[in-house]
Amino acid sequence: MRLFRLLSLLIALCAAAPVLAADGSWTQLDLHREGGQLVVQVEKGRLVWGMSLGEDAEDRWARASVLYTWRPGGGRAPWNLRAGPALKAEEIGWWQVADYRWATCLDDRDRCGALRAGWRLSADRWAQYGDWGLFLMADFTSIDRATLAVAGATHLPSGWGGQVSLWHEQGGEPTPTLMLTRRLGKRLTLRLGHKFVEDETFLGISISTY
Fold first, then answer.
1. How far apart are CA 155 and CA 126, in angstroms?
2. Where would one find the signal peptide in this protein (predicted)?
């Protein structure tokens, strides 16, 4: 869909603009039988630029956000509290155009897209305890009232790790996911997971420059 791709490209350009001068970045690509998801996070100082693109069966969407970070508590492993504006571009049916403030269709009415704005709030923490690294995160976006909670642990000497997460958005069911990870190098990690509500298994990689 050309309209959706155009909106996605505009959001991606906004999110990727500061990547060359970044303090750190995170890129994640997961693929499953009916689609996949790409997530990019770029951090520069107190700002975190986020972008994600996804496709699931016939649904396509893109999200972007710019978050400001506070680090209360200090110490070696402070909490990162983040907040800022968010955008979502998505493919919709022609009969849904009237339900959105910013939406349009091409001439054949089979290609329609919408853009929505909102706020995103996030809190995360990574800490090391001996040979283990522990990651915790909670994330909320007012668009679709989408909530994500993540807890993960990695055995640092071996590179093996695991993660459990719970995703929920307005109109859907809470979706638990279990994932196994294996660090393949200093920056590259292999990901294998399963979403239980959709009964969907995915394989992916992540690349971190932190």
1. 13
2. 1-21
